[in-house]
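Closing statement on the L6N33NVT sub-project.
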Amino acid sequence: MSSSPQSQESGATRRSLLASGAGVAIAGAAAGLTYAGRPGSVAAHQSSSGRGSSGSASAEPVPFRGEHQAGIVTPAQDRMHFVALDVVTKDPAELRLLLKEWTRAAERMTYGAEAAPGGVVGGGPYQPPADTGEALDLPPSNLTITIGYGPSLFDGRFGLAGRKPEALHDLPGFVGDDLDPARSGGDLCIQACADDPQVAVHAIRNLIRIGLGVISVRWSQLGFGRTSSTSTSQTTPRNLFGFKDGTANIKAEDSDALTKHVWVDPADVPGNAAWMAGGSYLVTRRIRMHIEVWDRTPLQEQEDIFGRDKAVGASLHLPVDKRDEFAPLDFEAKGADNQPRIPMAAHVRLAHQSQLGGIRILRRGYNFTDGSDGSGHLDAGLFFVAFVRDAHKQFVPMQQALARADVLNEYIEHTGSALFAAPPGLGTDDDWGTQLFG
Ligand SMILES: C=CC1=C(C)c2cc3[nH]c(cc4nc(cc5[nH]c(cc1n2)c(C)c5CCC(=O)O)C(CCC(=O)O)=C4C)c(C)c3C=C
Ligand SMILES: [Fe+2]
């Protein structure tokens, strides 16, 4: 587990918080993780290694409450279901109440309980079940549920205009963008990540169900394989171009980098926007990757495009027998042809902090495949997710540099985009409605 503040809470504290704050009866807490809300013991479902496929310990659920929201520096789980929603009610009280109900349901599901007391069958035969049931026998699987608010939520419909953080305004267009409005924007978002896809999908489905009449789905995205490590405890996964992705990412253990680049500082959000202190801005970009074209590209060209080798993920300046994934990139090193060993338009050079005045971001993206496009090509790519302290000061200049010159652009296309303010974590008796509306 990460060394994030959430994970420092003891299991006993979390269980008692859950019992009081979320109305979930915990049976036999002393004897282990048996949650009465959902039949079956978490311990009984644990893999023999005690580790989920994300490489993080899976015996304990990820704490829902804490200084920061879970699902940001939590070791990236293997699966993601992300949904962007629009608010359809005109009544701020309904939105506020929904956020409170979502808090309760999200906390319960994070701990492996049904979305609501009574859940799947406890409500009796004459009403629809309060939980859809497909996760009934499954362990929590490191589920995290992370909420975010889009710029449009603060447009005046709900009396929130005065609480809008200054940095929460739409991203500009970038050279080469081919954005689909039906895959972009949104009043709200919910990111559910877990090591079991059914657990992530169940969480999103039940939150949508609870919001019937208050919100509607704008777009959603499933991710099947993480493309980042967010903790030094994790191995680096590979993207659909076959390269290790996440090597130089900000890691949960680097608290100085998190403070500088990821968490919103109180000084960033004075006055009525102070509710965002300790939060982070969440950027999504749905990036289609033209994998059929890539698959016809020679290895050396592929490696020059990223600036790292394919086998190890090491900087190209290192000799083959000294390749180390985590050795620093050397942008000055030249090859036998006297040309930079990491080409001037290589992806890692353009995205590196040394070329961007020290800018860094926390990446937390996922591979996706959404069927095919009718022309015999897979609609596959990277659902890019980044968490930053200020998207306009970090993501925007970085993406501008990439859009302008990255050789990778020949093989990719940005088809969706969104920005959300992900609030800080919740204290013991807090809920998302009170946190947002004050
Ligand atoms: C605006 C930010 C970025 C976008 C968009 C982006 C898209 C993208 N990246 C890859 C694959 C790799 N990226 C790698 C490194 C890397 N990428 C970004 C930013 C964006 N990438 C950063 C900040 C970095 C780290 C740079 C550094 O400091 O060294 C790598 C190398 C391994 C790694 O460090 O993670 C790969 C591989 C794809 C395929 C893609 C769009 C589809
Ligand atoms: Fe990248």
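The pocket of L6N33NVT (ligand 1) is lined by residues 239, 241, 243-249, 285, 287, 289, 306, 308, 329, 347-348, 351-353, 361, 381-382, 384, 395, 398-399, 402, 412 (CB under 6 Å). With this model delivered, the sub-project is considered complete and its resources will be redirected to Aim 3.
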